[in-house]
Amino acid sequence: MSESISELMDLKELYQEIILDHGKNPRNKGKCDGYTNDAKAHNPLCGDKVHIYLKLNKDKEIEDLSFEGEGCAISLASASILTETIKGKDLSFLRKVNDDFLNMIKNKTKITINSLSADQITTITSLSGVQEFPMRVKCATMAWHTCLSAVEKNE
Ligand code: ZN
After folding, report:
1. In sequence order, which residues have a C-beta less than 8 Å from that of residue 69 and are 6 or more positions away?
2. CB within 5 A of ion ligand 1: which residues?
């Protein structure tokens, strides 16, 4: 019993470390060259802003992507983790991982997509802690919604 509680604490600490790392050193920050799609969003509850840039090639693969944003650590970490996860992948992968992510946040399900490494799943799952804080859900999901709308806008 005490063992499983300490394991749970370790996991929580690991998740916090991942979020802090991505929040402080966001990956793929800036405006990527030659982007084909973009979309932005604003979360007035927290003051977060995000602008996603995607460079899609003719095979509908995400050749490059980046984001500009400001706001809380969770919103920056979420955008950073998103861009790291989908870089180089195709749009069907983006849709699957997006569904999985939003389901995890809303319905507390696990990430099921099988083309991710264990490390990638741990990184994405680090954002699941916002389930306990309804005010922060938007912080964690905004970049993911925005990325989908960037894709759908130009289809
Ligand atoms: Zn926020």
Report:
1. 26, 29, 48, 49, 50, 51, 75, 76, 79, 143
2. 46, 48, 71-72, 75, 139
Structural domains of the chain ordered from first start: 5-152 (3.90.1010.10)
Distance of alpha carbon 37 from alpha carbon 54, whole angstroms: 5
pTM: 0.93
How many angstroms separate the alpha carbon of residue 75 from the centre of ligand 1? 5
pLDDT 10s digits, 52-79:
999 999 999 999 999 999 999 999 999 9
CB within 8 A of 36, min separation 6: which ones?
A: 54, 55, 56, 154
3-state secondary structure of 86: helix
The residues facing 52 across adjacent strands are: 39, 67
Tell how far the Cα of 45 is from the centroid of ligand 1, in angstroms: 8
CA of 141 to the centre of ligand 1 (A): 10
Whether the pLDDT of residue 151 is over 50: the answer is yes
